[in-house]
Design a protein that fits this description.
Blueprint: H1 13-25, H2 30-44, H3 69-72
Length: 100
């Protein structure tokens, strides 16, 4: 993805507040909402350039898998669920006897 351009945008405070509310309604940041509206306006007017990338994904980037120590040594990781030799033996507490 190419470098994103940064611009300074001066807005009327009332317009800014309306954008902030609208962005919140659509779970976007104010900046993402402004970009969305600009892209939509360009698309509707037929001025959106060909090959323009999509909107950046929201949230954190996907976590990249880190190789295990075993994988680095060329060993295959066993897919079976291994349990420690000392398994926990959990029992329900004993119930007191009710008088007969």
């Amino acid at each position: 993805m190419s470098q994103r351009k940064q611009i300074l945008l001066r807005l009327d405070p009332v317009v800014h507040n309306a954008l902030v509310r609208w962005a919140g309604d659509e779970l976007r940041s104010t900046t993402a909402q402004i970009e969305f509206l600009l892209r939509e306006s360009l698309r509707r007017s037929g001025r959106l350039p060909d090959g323009v990338g999509g909107m950046p994904r929201r949230g954190r980037p996907p976590k990249q898998d880190q190789p295990d120590e075993h994988d680095e040594q060329g060993e295959q990781e066993d897919e079976t669920d291994e349990t420690d030799e000392t398994e926990l033996n959990i029992q329900a507490p004993a119930r007191p006897h009710a008088p007969e």
